[in-house]
Design a protein that fits this description.
alpha+beta, five-stranded antiparallel β-sheet, elongated, hydrolase, carboxypeptidase, transmembrane, transferase
Length: 899
């Protein structure tokens, strides 16, 4: 509180009355008289004088302040102190004089101002605070600068390799995955490349301190308002960000850190070294880090041989390969089409060349030579990952990331040892078996309309552990990027039928006399001797004998491939073993309906197929393979049968280590998907397929083999999946264009492919399987499959006009019943040469929704399928097929076919 507002001490020597009477020598009154307010120093001063002179006491106070009153003013002659201080020569005076005191360091609120002016800081205070603030900033910056060190480029920018090992612990490949970097000296980098980057990115590079204050301010402002966070970085800053900072976030704190490191680097490192480091650490797209890798990735030349046009192009790509790579990046952004990227790259390249001329780095004559975008080669992957190695590495990487032990970002930084399950010998043998067929049978030049885009996929799995021993992903991982052993979309056809049989043995068929709820619980387990109709164009019933109809009231008639009836007339009844051997569609479609398609689907999942690879189970054709599991999953599911119902997840990595030790070890976990009785009976039926049926090409002399062929409707894919007691292998074949620029790609027919009238699972796939497995099982102990225990009851043992199941009183009563041989296929073992089957109707089209679409329930006619026989017998007139189903509508009836 200011001095003039303090309450005066109690009056002494008469108080106010004495003061008003003008008694000299008395103590000071309540108010000190303003200077000059009385005629003499000792003159009396009362309210009348005060009011007459100033009008009011408030005015008197203000006048006193204006005339120099205040607590800092010493008592003047003729004016007494507030507390009776001695006056001047005439004695103590009246009024107020400032008591002597200390001067304030910060005069705030201001002592000599009144009202709002007291709270307005003086210019001295403002300037002092500003100086202190900037002084602190300078001090903090100095401390931060002193604490910053210059990281070493070789330690931060060059990622370590990850080393992948074969199953025998020998090194398979050392690579950072898709990382590709080869550092070069500045002398190997053309001046045109250096100046292209400088002209476009940082024209003051050789003269600046490492930062651009204006650019930084612009970037900070943009970040503050939520706009573009890019921009404002010099070459030095980009070098620091790429090579020295792990944190790549676009935040103010990281930007500040980048600035201090950049200033330090700019002050201590030569400019040429900074430029060299930047060009060697920057990312140019296509997995290329550094100018040398980029030169190879885009032009297949060394960096030293780049011309000015190529250099200007690569400087444009540095802005973001997603939008400047002429090959396009539509998988990342649909707007990054090849045409759009070419236009952007062309514009940016020309702008860079113009700036190089403007800043004196390129002559106009040389600039005139480069008016078009340079020709670039198609994207290629790391050469180390060619052949099958790239597919193996990708599969192992995915397994490591899924394990949760290492993130994808950590894996990219390198430093890990990944031990895989892959057997080098088996991988080579599978590739050799496939390439043999390519070389001997597939000739795109001779049959361009039939043999182009032919692809194979394969996987081989240890039945006792689930370890993936070998895969075939395609001809070359650097040219064909889809791993054909993994998800491809190729439907599996009749190789799906064992899951239907397993469901019938595990849960049984429903009682036709019971309602839907009760029938789910009261079932009859099915024996392989059970009889079902092999009639072509079979009208499919629900489990209760009623005719199946879709939502439009359309019925389903199941065709066999070749439109052949299989079995004894007039009902063409055939037991399930023979139906599997000859791959009869009508029998398994009706069996699936009797069991329930929900149980068929559950059976497939129990064996190891992934739910998202299975088609909807709303149509009868579900039982004959309209789903598209991968070769890896099909081999794993059949391995469940091979090991008496024990299911294990396929895996490709046994352990992961780094400098800190072991980070991950795979533990084999198993579950009993089927009882041994069920699994062993399925195996026993599948042995018949190889011994006397459609899979006889897959026989291995001296060893027991079980397996199943599969060919889809429209002849658009073919499979063979088979196993010995120790090894399960799946081989697929289909035609599908590699070129991603082709819109609406779809699977192509294989009629005439390889010079064959039609491709079956019994032809090239089983041939490849046999060729591979002959070598793969060498050295393995010869084992036999477990002898199956009798299972279930014989359903439909009394032939009837319809295939509606009626439980047999006992299995023993019909034990001797067996169907007569099929009229077309032979039961005897025949030559392993591929058959010359008759053609079937093509109803299989994954993009069709008009009744020709397999697995599509939206077309009304839905997926259908039939499969005839596929015997290598010379007399065979029907061939196997299983597809996604035709909705070939005849009148008001659906006809399902599967070729």
């Amino acid at each position: 509180m200011s001095e003039h507002r303090r309450k005066p001490p109690p009056p002494q020597g008469g108080g106010r009355a004495a003061a008003r009477r003008g008694q000299s020598g008395s103590s000071s009154g309540r108010r000190a008289a303003p200077r000059g307010a009385t005629g003499s120093p000792s003159g009396s001063y009362g309210p009348e004088n005060e009011e007459s002179a100033y009008g009011s006491r408030a005015e008197a106070r203000r006048a006193a302040q204006r005339n120099g009153g205040g607590r800092r003013r010493a008592a003047e002659p003729g004016r007494g102190g507030r507390r009776g201080a001695p006056g001047g020569p005439a004695g103590p005076g009246r009024g107020r004089a400032a008591a002597p005191g200390k001067k304030r360091m910060i005069d705030y609120p201001r002592h000599n101002k009144d009202g709002w002016q007291r709270w307005v800081p003086s210019w001295r205070l403002v300037s002092g605070l500003c100086i202190a603030f900037f002084g602190c900033l300078v001090g903090a910056a100095g401390i931060a600068y002193a604490m910053v060190s210059v990281p070493v480029i070789d330690e931060s920018a060059t990622a370590q390799n990850n080393v992948y090992y074969w199953a025998d612990n020998t090194q398979m490949v050392a690579t950072g995955g898709d990382r590709n970097r080869q550092s070069v000296n500045l002398s190997q980098i053309p001046k045109a490349m250096r100046y292209a980057v400088i002209s476009q990115e940082n024209k003051t590079f050789y003269s600046d301190s490492g930062i651009d204050p204006k650019g930084i301010a612009r970037a900070v402002f943009n970040m503050a308002k939520g706009g573009d966070t890019q921009g404002g970085s010099t070459i030095t800053q980009q070098y620091v960000k790429n090579a020295m900072l792990n944190d790549q976030s676009q935040t103010i704190s990281r930007k500040v850190k980048e600035i201090f490191v950049s200033i330090k680097v700019g002050a201590e490192e030569p400019k040429d070294k900074i430029l060299e480091g930047y060009l060697n650490s920057a990312y140019y797209g296509r997995g290329a880090y550094g100018i040398q890798a980029a030169a190879r990735a885009y032009f297949n030349v060394d960096a030293v041989d780049l011309n000015p046009g190529q250099c200007a192009f690569l400087s444009a790509v540095l802005k973001g390969a997603t939008y400047y790579d002429p090959a396009g990046s539509i998988a990342i952004d649909p707007a990054a089409t090849p045409d759009a990227n070419k236009k952007r790259a062309q514009s940016q390249m020309q702008d860079t060349l113009d700036k190089m001329v403007e800043y004196g780095h390129l002559s106009q004559a040389d600039r005139a030579k480069y008016t078009e975008l340079p020709t670039t080669q198609n994207p290629q992957s790391n050469a180390k990952l060619g052949g099958q190695i790239g597919y193996l590495v990708r599969l192992a990487k995915a397994s490591v990331v899924r394990s949760g032990a290492v993130t994808e970002q950590q894996l990219e930084k390198g430093g890990y040892s990944i031990y895989t399950t892959f057997d080098k010998k088996k991988v080579d043998e599978m590739e050799k078996a496939v390439q043999k067929v390519y070389k001997e049978k597939i000739d795109p030049k001779k049959r361009p309309e039939k043999d182009t885009h032919v692809q194979f996929g394969g996987a081989s799995i240890d039945t006792r552990t689930g370890a993936i021993k070998a895969i075939y992903g395609g001809q070359d991982a650097t040219k064909h990027f889809t791993n054909n052993a993994d998800v491809t979309g190729a439907q599996v056809g009749s190789t799906f039928k064992p899951f239907v049989l397993a469901a019938a043995m595990k849960w049984g068929v429903r009682d036709p006399d019971l309602g839907p709820v009760q029938a789910q619980d009261e079932r009859t387990v099915v024996s392989p001797k059970s009889l079902y109709s092999g009639k072509n164009d079979l009208k499919i019933n629900n489990y209760d004998g009623s005719i199946w109809e879709n939502e439009k009231g359309e019925q389903w008639r199941q065709e066999n491939d070749g439109q052949d009836n299989v079995g004894d007339p007039p009902d063409y009844m055939i037991d399930l073993r023979e139906a599997m051997r000859e791959s009869v569609n009508s029998a398994f479609v009706q069996l699936g309906m009797d069991v329930g398609l929900d149980k068929v689907k559950e059976s497939a999942e129990d064996a190891g197929l992934l739910e998202d690879s299975l088609a909807g189970a709303g149509y009868p054709s579900f039982s004959i393979g309209v789903s598209d599991p991968s070769a890896i999953r099909m081999a794993g599911a059949y391995a469940t049968f091979a090991d008496s119902g024990k299911q294990r997840e396929p895996y490709s990595v046994t352990k992961v280590t780094n400098k800190d030790g072991t980070l991950y070890t795979h533990k084999v976990e198993e579950k009993q998907a089927y009882t041994a009785k069920v699994a062993d009976n399925v195996t026993d039926v599948l042995k018949t397929v190889v011994e006397k049926g459609t899979g006889s090409n897959a026989q291995l002399p001296g060893r027991e083999v079980a397996g199943k062929t599969g060919t889809t409707d429209g002849n658009k894919s073919a499979w063979f999946v088979g196993y010995t007691p120790q090894l399960s292998t799946a081989i697929s074949m289909y035609r599908y264009p590699d070129d991603e620029s082709i819109k609406d790609r779809t699977f192509l027919e294989m009629f005439g492919t390889g010079g064959e009238k039609k491709i079956h699972g019994a032809s090239f796939p089983s041939t490849i399987w046999q060729d591979y497995m002959s070598d793969a099982v060498k050295g393995m102990k010869v084992e036999k499959f477990p002898k199956p225990e009798p299972i279930g009851e014989v359903i439909n043992d009394a032939p009837s006009p319809t295939p509606t199941p009626s439980p047999s009183p006992s299995a023993s009563e019909t034990e001797e019943v067996s169907p007569s041989p099929s009229p077309s296929p032979s039961d005897t073992q025949t030559s392993p040469s591929p058959p010359a089957p008759t053609e079937s109707c093509d109803f299989w089209d994954i993009n069709c929704g008009n009744g020709n679409n397999g697995g599509n329930a939206n077309g009304g006619n839905g997926p259908g399928g039939s499969e005839g026989s596929e015997s290598p017998s010379p007399s065979a007139t029907a061939t196997e097929g299983e597809g996604d189903g035709g909705g070939n509508t005849r009148g008001n009836t659906i006809w399902g076919t599967n070729g």
